[in-house]
Write a structure and sequence with these properties.
about 240 residues; mainly alpha; globular; disordered N terminus; disordered C terminus
Amino acid sequence: MGSGPKPAVGPPLRRDPWLWSGVAGVMGFLLIAVAVLTRGGLPFDDPFAAAIQGLAIPVGFWEACTFAGGAILVPIGIGMVLTALLARRIRLAIILAAILIGAVLFTEVVKEVISRPRPPGEALTPWLGFSFPSGHTLNSTVTYGLLAVVAWRSLLPILARRSLVAVGVAMPFLVGLSRIALGVHYPSDVLAGWFGGIAFVALGACLIRVMGAMERDGSPVADAPTAEGRPADAAETDRPTGT
């Protein structure tokens, strides 16, 4: 007697690259935090900052990049959560909201614990609070990174998914560089922000997979996840059709 379609089962979680990316992110963040606490920073902080600030790039470009990692992340994050809710992916909405809020709280707590002063000299943009880690960098990595993860595992056309993954990689990179160029963060602040952000994205990616959060709640067969953690229908859209 047939039991109906069964969802594809992916490899064990321990072989999921996101798990090891998260471990690497945590370790990288901790190593930099220890260096900041014990040595005041990393040896390349000053020369790398000087190199970035010496580039012949208009300040307006860096300000635009910083804007992409600031308050605009709030409506982007809310939009992601609401989209998941409207698509009846309640588990996905909960995971996204928890990771986004958790990243913000984590950043603020660490800033207070480390209490690293901002770089000396006149900054080219206003700033508030302590320097480590870069909140713009960490939270943009989390927001755009989660957007890329969800997009890649979605039913969107392959070109749209690749474009959103490119945004998920490029935007945090540019936001981080802008914080150095504008004189409001040390390179080690930004590097820690990237590592910390990757750790949060990895946590979200693993939770999405383990909880089957790309499935619509109430219709497990139609949206059964493939080995990549995407709905089964998404794999069909990538297959070439016969003539």
